[in-house]
Amino acid sequence: MPIATLLSRVIPPDALRRKLIAIRLAESIGKGVFISGSVVYFTLHVGLSAGQVGLGLSAAGFSGLVSSVVFGMVADRMSRRKLLCALFLTLAAGFGLYSLVDTAGAFFALVMCVGFVEYGTSPTMSALMGTLVPPDERVRLKAMMRSVFNIGFSVGIGVAAAAALSPRLLVVIPLTTAALMVVAAVLVTRLPEGERKTIPSGLAKFAAVRDLPFLGVIGVSAVLASHVTIVLVTLPLWALSRTSVPHFVVPLLLIFNTVFVILFQVRASKGAETVAGACRTARRSGFWLAGGCLVIALTALTSNMVVVTVAIVAAVLVLSTAEIMQSASAWGLGFGLAPEHAQGEYLGAFDLHVITQNIAGPAVLSGVVIAFGLWGWVAVAVVVLVAATVITPVARNSERRLVAQQPELATV
Predict the structure, then answer these.
(1) Which of 35, 216, 262, 372 could, after both became Cys, cross-link 376 (CB 3.0–4.6 A)?
(2) pTM for the full model?
(3) Cα angle vertex 209, ends 204, 214, to 5°?
(4) What keywords are annotated for this sequence in UniProt (predicted)?
(5) What is the pLDDT of residues 73-87, one digit of tens each?
């Protein structure tokens, strides 16, 4: 693919969208540096054990269950641009403080605080986009931003790898991330404020997590987002422990997945701009995801290294297709089912479908397939197919509730 064609897919022609893309790029490079280098930094530089690092990072993930909704609510009630800028500056301070951490207690306290703030940036950014970008353009822009995120994340991995070459350079990992968060904050100040919808008086707090039809969409979407865990955790574990795939192939699978998303995410977003279109895309993503699971299941039937390797690579291709479709559908459903006056809160709640997958997915999916082998993969495929089948009626039920609420809210 020509470079010019690729750049046209990830760099919008207008200044506003380029600013949003630039913010995402700075954030993604910073996260790529820290996420890929954090284990090395905390074990070799700080002196923590692998168990302590893992426990701390998991605890940070749990904080997202609360902060994504809380900061979404805050974003609906104050300047979203100012809030996003404040969040990035707070993250910069937090990542900078990692360079001073020298005990497990300080690490646990700081990683929880940083995690809590970090999970607030996504709903705040999405809510700000909702005030700046027309509804029919939001999904495509989110797709561009995701492609850019993968590019930036890959750059960040390279920076972390370079820093890991010398013990003296390890401190560059948190400090580089801190600096990039400052860059993101400065770029946010160059955005317009955008118009916010007035919140109706008497609206119940935590309305999103009380909205049962909307929670149903989140739950089904969490199942369809299983590709996250499968590609990052379950498939590598399966390949290393239950197949004859050469070990050097396993890291290459993630590179292949990353490049695939960069090239095709924007194209996959076409048609997911509406709730109906997002449902169709989500259903197709489920079929692809189930197909990927079944391809992996076949590797339990042979020990031929060539056949297994080809099957694993083919499965990553299928799973990557499911990933870009599911991501696009999630943006369409999130924006389409969020009331205009509570976009931050509802988008923050919708982020729970990925957060819960990140927390529960590794233990559940890996446990099932490692314990039951071929039939474990078949069981996962069946559950995914059920989710793909019910996503449309579940989303339509939530949409009907949203439409029914509009006259009531208008008269409050």
Answers:
(1) 372
(2) 0.90
(3) 110
(4) Cell membrane, Membrane, Transmembrane, Transmembrane helix, Transport
(5) 999 989 999 999 999
CATH (domain of 227): 1.20.1250.20
Structural domain ending residue among the three candidates 122, 153, 188:
188
Query: Alpha-carbon distance 215 to 334, whole Å?
Result: 11
Q: By C-alpha distance, which of 331, 348, 334 is closest to 118?
A: 348
274 shares a domain with 224: yes
Q: What letter represents residue 36's amino acid? A: S
Q: Give the structural domain span for 119.
A: 12-188
**Tokens matching residue 411:** 């008269």
Within the chain, which residues score under 70 in pLDDT?
1-10, 196-204, 406-412
The b-or-e profile of 130-144 (16+ CB within 10 A means b, else e) is: bbbbeeeebbbbbbb
Q: Are residues 361 and 308 in the same domain?
A: yes
